[in-house]
Write a structure and sequence with these properties.
Layout (H helix, E strand, L loop, with lengths): L7 E4 L11 E7 L3 E8 L4 E9 L4 H7 L9 E6 L4 E5 L8 H4 L10 E8 L4 E8 H10 L3 E5 L2 H14 L5 E6 L3 E8 L2 E9 L3 H14 L8 E6 L6 H6 L5 E4 L7 E2 L8 H4 L11
Parallel strand pairs: 2-5, 4-15, 5-9, 10-13, 13-14
Antiparallel strand pairs: 1-4, 2-3, 3-4, 6-8, 7-8, 10-11, 11-12
């Protein structure tokens, strides 16, 4: 259900009277939006998706929306920021801001340098996040973990790609309001994880084709997975389809059920939120 403010909420309220301790709340926060998913752990069921305009006040958002306000089993918060670094374990100490700044700008006065370990790869993710937001998150939730927005995506994509056993390269693309995440997998490795500025379908197509050319990935045979502000048949999809033969919307986490009561929601905007379950404690 969408209203003029841009808020969207899709709920199965069948289990709304059950303890919040059965639930995981999965959030992704970017400059424009806060995306949410509710996962009932005993039912193995996604019972809700939502999107709220980011008012730059997490406390205010929670006060307005009671379904964000419970004491959940755990809250996983993915913070979107183009300033992140995927690096090999035991090779680089990216907890040192001086090392991180070799390739990434970092403002020690206003940002916190965070780290997360990738289970599927012998790698970690360092990322910068606004210090005020990190403080808000920890004040707002009791059982909470803060991660980079790309952390669960890489975990799920790499695992799913390995299971295909085809060996064909894959590109995963997430479209934000004015940015574009591209991750590329080839020869059993992740070759690219980067974010680019984009202002429309031409930029999206350019950077996807640029990445494929740079990594010698043939659009005729590689898989292209899309999520975010893109839909099947929209202008960006149609333009990319002129070059890519195998295109799909990013799939939900394997073996996770989504309530059949959640109808008419955008799968490209919400299904990928389930990947954050790979990061629960």
């Amino acid at each position: 259900m969408e209203n003029p403010s841009g808020t969207e909420e899709y709920f199965d309220l069948s289990f709304s009277e059950e303890p919040a301790s059965y639930y995981y709340l999965l959030l992704t926060i970017d400059q424009e939006w806060v995306h949410a998913a509710w996962y009932h752990s005993t039912k193995n069921l996604i019972t809700g998706f939502a999107r709220y305009p980011n008012q730059n006040s997490l406390k205010g958002l929670i006060e307005q929306h009671p379904y964000l306000r419970s004491e959940f089993k755990e809250v996983i918060v993915g913070v979107q920021n183009e300033n992140y670094l995927v690096y090999p374990k035991h090779v680089l100490d990216a907890t040192n801001p001086n090392i991180f700044q070799l390739t990434n700008a970092f403002n020690e006065d206003h940002e916190s340098l965070m780290n997360g370990e990738l289970v599927s790869l012998q790698a970690s993710i360092a990322f910068a996040a606004p210090s005020d937001l990190i403080t808000e998150i920890y004040n707002a939730f009791k059982h909470v973990k803060v991660i980079s927005h790309v952390h669960p995506r890489i975990e799920q994509e790499f695992n799913a790609w390995k299971k295909t056993r085809t060996g064909s390269p894959m590109l995963s693309v997430h479209v934000w309001n004015d940015q574009l995440d591209i991750r590329a997998y080839k020869d059993g490795k992740i070759y690219l994880a980067n974010t680019y500025f984009q202002s429309g379908k031409e930029d999206i197509a350019y950077y996807v084709l640029y990445a494929s050319e740079l990594l010698e990935i043939d659009p005729e045979g590689a898989q292209l997975s899309l999520s975010g502000s893109v839909e099947i048949g929209d202008p960006a999809w149609t333009l990319l389809a002129q070059y890519w033969k195998k295109m799909e919307i990013a799939q939900p986490l394997e073996n996770i059920k989504i309530s059949e009561s959640l109808s008419d929601f955008s799968h490209s905007r919400f299904d990928h939120l389930t990947h954050a379950l790979l990061c629960v404690s």
